[in-house]
């Protein structure tokens, strides 16, 4: 094909299309996709866009195969589009090894970097996956291990019962379970490319690569001011336009590189080995880059924004690792890397291999310095997220609190451990101490709101969720939390729907699951149905949740046949999940609800009870599982048991706080048969007397 110049200097092509030859042999799908995409790009860009597409690529990978110089040059492109299929996810293939992995490795260190700030403020990747098959769990894990996060791109998958193939222009979107139309997906692909290229053209590369959190070294004077401890700028307090690179230039201009070296090596009593000035500065830079990635990764996970590229904890781990390479005695980097590993494991971005590595990092940090705050926080994270020993996690977070009483982070973590253990009074007292510090971090503030909600203090809960929204309007989690609290307080959806519109506008998130739930509460089942069909559970959810949504909605619509089909699908999905982790109490609880839906009372109650007993502590997870058990009782006609459980929730909030209220019970159709029962009416009279 003819060669056109890239829009940006230094690059060979604007777009590189990578695929397995196997995926193009049957009907030329990839060739058609490229031809259609080119037409769409012509209507999207004023300029000519250059696309590299090899009509006859290598397919297998032999020992003698290698990337020649010409392919390396062709990989110098702005956007890399892998056609993700079941055959593409194969480390033995040429496309996987010498195009997909090679591009990520090459781009991660080029002048633009792999990540790009999009015009809408989100962060995207220069890898834009186009998925043409639903993948199995092993292929997804393999692909995400290279991407460093979840697969976020454009889907061209056609689904019917028993059908899983690439979407074509002739397919009817109404028959497609994914409800996608080929023409629209081509348009989405072109628009995504435009966003990425616009981001690359509008912001200098170094501003993207060096956008990190500044750190001030401890125990040193800065222009006559004594700094008692490291001060890490939060995500919210960063000054626009400033980054570590510019900050370093200012410092270097004032005191020179040896001054920086001196400050770094004399900081909190570090047993640092002799490190060159340049290495010391580079270590600090990579350390702060790790802090930024770690924070962003956690925020990305909690925001669950499908329109934004996931920033993975593996990026943070890589940055901390580089800091350690620069300075092997950098004990804070070991501790922070341990925390990132624990967080990554908890969020299911990283596998169980991180558990041992997390502990190894902690031990290495302790060898160098056995008493600093982040070491104790790291041990708390290890026992909280990896080992599941809440008592030890509590002890280490308490030590961190004692070392730095005014540091809100360990206090927040300690309150969360007490809350998870069900030691509600202690958790609440720590929350009050946390409030006294006037925390501004949205994650902390919305969790304070959740604590108040568990104690049915709706007004205080709404106040703190709103504070989190005000501090970070682009984050969807506090909107979710506030919407739920509004329903619990008022028992209607009017204010919740208004806030939902605001959340979608401010965050760009779909929040489809909330739309579905509010429609169910309002008995708008016909409106909830298409939303449930289009619903795609996020990374932290289970695929069976979608089927359970559909089963319940069809049940409310009195379509028993379709309801049974989706209950069966949910049953198979959750049973498959259970094969991977039989100790996941949530899966057992979901299975209980599914069995209740198909009228298998004994299995339903058995699974519901099992979910409750699997939880060691009397914590908020247990309250959720008990609430699900009450639903199972109601769905299977065990109204006396359902009423007794609800009465327990409503009368003993300090013993079993919950996300439950009488108002919610009145609008959720799952309770309709219970409300009409004499057992419930008797229970309600008892509550009224008290």
Overall mean pLDDT: 81
Strand order of the largest sheet: 2-1-3-6-7
**Low-pLDDT sequence parts:** 61-65, 204-267, 304-310
Q: Count the strands? A: 13
Number of helices: 32
Rg measurement, Å: 27 Å
Shape: globular
Give an account of the 3D structure.
The protein has 690 residues and is α/β, with parallel strands linked by helices. Among the domains are: 13-204, Rossmann fold, CATH 3.40.50; 533-689, Serine Threonine Protein Phosphatase 5, Tetratricopeptide repeat. It is 60% helix and 6% strand. The chain has a five-stranded parallel β-sheet with strand order 2-1-3-6-7, sandwiched between helices. A two-stranded antiparallel sheet has the order 4-5. Helix 9 packs across helix 10 (277-303), helix 24 (544-556) runs antiparallel to helix 25 (560-580) and helix 28 packs antiparallel against helix 29 (639-651). It starts with 12 loop residues before the first strand and ends with a helix. Residues 61-65, 204-267 and 304-310 have low confidence and may be disordered.
